[in-house]
Amino acid sequence: MNNAISLHVLCRYEDGRPKGLVTLDQKAGLFDSVSWRIKDAEIDGLIGKEFFMHEAKNKQSYLNGTIIGIRREAIADNDGEVRAIVQFKATKENRIKTDWPPTDNPNEYYRINYDMPLEKLR
């Protein structure tokens, strides 16, 4: 689907840092967010879109960026299950805190926003 606006994920803290966040290049603002169950059919439509990490759905995002790639790999911590790894670039322009898009699903851990303009989530 190519009409995605943004991707929001629940990424809680563990030992004082976001769980599954890998710093690739701090100076360049490059990160990997590991272990998401994003479907293959959703990946292409998310490249170049905004990425938001939230500690909880009722909290604004704490780290934002632009998705520059998504790859699928087996994750050792998940018994080798293949998961998506979102690579993103955080910039000064991405620092605006954003709400989780409206949802009827209390159990979702990621949400692809197809219809809510980002201005309405800020």
Task: For the structure shown, list the relevant keywords.
122 residues; mainly beta; 7-stranded mixed sheet; two-stranded antiparallel sheet; 2 helices
Shape descriptor reads globular
Q: What order do the helices and strands follow?
A: EEEEEHEEEEH
Mean of pLDDT: 89
The largest β sheet comes out as:
7 strands, mixed
Major sheet: arrangement of strands = 4-5-8-7-6-1-9
**Whole-number tally of structural domains:** 1
Low-pLDDT parts are none
Helix/sheet category: mainly beta
**β-strand number:** 9
State the end-to-end CA separation. Answer: 24 Å
User: How large a portion of the residues is in β-strands, by DSSP E?
Assistant: 35-45%
Number of helices: 2
Radius of gyration: 14 Å
Helicity level: under 10%
Architecture overview:
It comes from Pseudochrobactrum kiredjianiae. This is DUF736 domain-containing protein. The protein has 122 residues and is mainly beta. The protein has one domain. It contains two helices and nine strands, in the order βββββαββββα. The protein has helices at residues 40-43, 118-121; strands at residues 6-10, 13-14, 17-18, 21-25, 30-36, 50-54, 63-74, 82-89, 110-113. The strands form two sheets. A seven-stranded mixed sheet has the order 4-5-8-7-6-1-9, with no helix packed on it. Strand 7 and strand 8 (82-89) form a beta hairpin. The radius of gyration is 14 Å and the shape is globular. The chain starts with 5 loop residues before the first strand and ends with a helix.
Strand-helix topology:
Layout: E1 6-10, E2 13-14, E3 17-18, E4 21-25, E5 30-36, H1 40-43, E6 50-54, E7 63-74, E8 82-89, E9 110-113, H2 118-121
Parallel strand pairs: 1-6
Antiparallel strand pairs: 1-9, 2-3, 4-5, 5-8, 6-7, 7-8
